[in-house]
Amino acid sequence: KRKLALPFKLQRELGLSAEEERREPSGPKQRRKGGSASTKDGATARDERQKRFREDNEKDERLRRSLAKKLKMKNADAKFGLDDGLNDILEGLPTTSGRQDSYSSAEESETASYSSATSSSSSDSPSSGQDESDEESSSSGTLEDGGEAAGPGASPAPVGRYVPPGLRAKTGLLDNNIARKVRGLLNRITESSVQGIACEIGAIVQNYQVQKKVIQDLICGELVRAAVEGPRASAQFAAVTASCAFGLAAQLGSSELIAKFAAVLAQKLEAALAEGEGRALHNLVLTLVHLANIRAISYSTVFSFLFHLKNSFSAPHVECIYTILRYVGAALRSSDPGTMKDFVISVHEKAGSVRSSSGGGSLSQKQEILLKSVVDIKNNRQRGNFGKSCHPLSPNVLSWFKSTGAQELCLQNLSWDSLLSRDKKGLWWLSGSDLRTTKMETEVLARASHGHHKGKQSLGPDYIKMAAEQRMNTEIRRSVFVVLMSSEDYVDAFERLVGLGLKGSQEREIPWVLLHCCIQEAAYNPYYFHIAMSLIKQSKQHKLSFIFTISDKLKELSKLNARGIVNISRLVAALVKEKLVPFTIIKALGIAGNVSKKEALFMQMLLEEYLRWSSEETIHEQLLQVYMRPEYKALQMALSMYIMKYFSKYLKNTKMDRTVLEGLKIKSQIAMKALSGNALN
User: Fold this and answer.
1) Checking phi first, is residue 392 left (phi over 0); if not, alpha (psi -120 to 50) or beta?
2) Phi and psi (nearest 5°) for 159?
3) Which end of the chain is more exposed for a tag (fewer CB within 10 A), N or C?
4) CA-to-CA distance for 135 and 46, rounded, in angstroms?
5) Number of Cα atoms under 13 Å in the Cβ half of residue 494
6) Whole-model pTM over 0.85
């Protein structure tokens, strides 16, 4: 009786099948017994081997079912253990070695042994070849672990690019049912239902975990297709379409949808201009101007489109210019009168060149009407509703935009060339996202620095190189750096920084770059103080950003050199003097204990600048607030101790003008009175 300690398949894998070969009759004995006897013994051995296969399989099946019962698994055919995803990773990889190879090699070795045992009787017994083929087919047709054996003609498993299991369900296109539902909702949009439809599409994206890129492509394609293939649209249709795109962008929380919609709109507009499709051209231009009217895109994009149309001055281009001026001409003039003036001059110059090229002939009727309309816009002369023909949105839609924060998604300074560009990389729709390749930004830099750097054609690459040297490691920081370095004065810098249109966390990069540039200067430059003052007065958010950024810099004071400490101390003193930031900002310095040399240098320069240029009333008022606030008790005591112990000693040993020195001593005494809670007089 044969004793099996392990399943037969595992014995074969471990090389324990030699014992079975020893039990089989050897070749010489078979040859002595004759051909018929050897054939009979071979058939008996084959039957015994197949019987052992069945017994081993039954034992394995019983063991598997018992284990499944102990593990309380409902289905015994299910996988044992936890699914760690390893099978998904190994799926589709080519197998060079493994269990199947070892099994197949073991079967081939056994088949070869049986073939050698019966080879002597192949000439005497005509059925030996048939028996051998049956044996091979039975061995090769054996199933392992419920899988099918691969025949000699079976093709290997396809091997392709590996896709993680979590993304395999997302690599395909959008589900047809979801796409059909979204299309149905977009086809039913009206001014009263646009809010509900946008919320419903946002819920679909969230519930079905639809990729934003896929749903954005579907929305942009459907909205633009309705404008291109539909009948001649009204202003209300264009307003509803633009509101739907803007509201969906706010619902999905991404300005990328507006950027994609504007890019698709620009491409379709260019195609319609080339083909001369008047109906599609009218619908697309109306949609574009209503995008600007609801502040989804800035008017600078419309100006860029107008200059682009002016270069051709053909009939379709003139009609587009007239439509734009008819609907948003007044808004364009009020948003940027200088650019409108440049456009009017360029249109008249283009009209003159057209007259001269035609041999002194007259312009067409549409071109003459356009010239009159341009002059009316320039002189702010209104004829009827010309220049203000956009469809007004309902108060419900406007309040919905305000509640969702849609105005923060407005795309600033998008040029027409950037919308048509095929080389869109990264966050291309953000202002200054690619200053190395954006033509409009390079021209702005060249114009801003023209007065200081004459003779240079383009200064953009120089500023980009400087930004890289200063380790401006993000696109927003590089944009702010280039604006600060290339502006003519602090007024120009302030206007251009506001024009960047940074929102939320992006605004916090402005104080960081400004402080970095101020610290790196060879000497203190008040230019940075005036920019900071303008920004703080404009917005409370800028004030908080400057307070937090300065506090972070003071915590890292040990990393700065003496020049940087002097620059930042004078900047902080100027901001405190103008009451733009509180005096308590120095709390981040931690002067309650031992004061290091760099901290002492900062406090000396700060107090000297602050006391020297501030009035006695301002000093007493600000430091008295420190005394009155209980949470600043430790700061009040530390500041009093520092003025008595260190600053008074510094004033005795320093060499400066006698009048200035006497004034500092008097004001330091006033500071001590305020910190002690005493009155000024």
Assistant:
1) beta
2) -115, 125
3) N
4) 7
5) 17
6) no
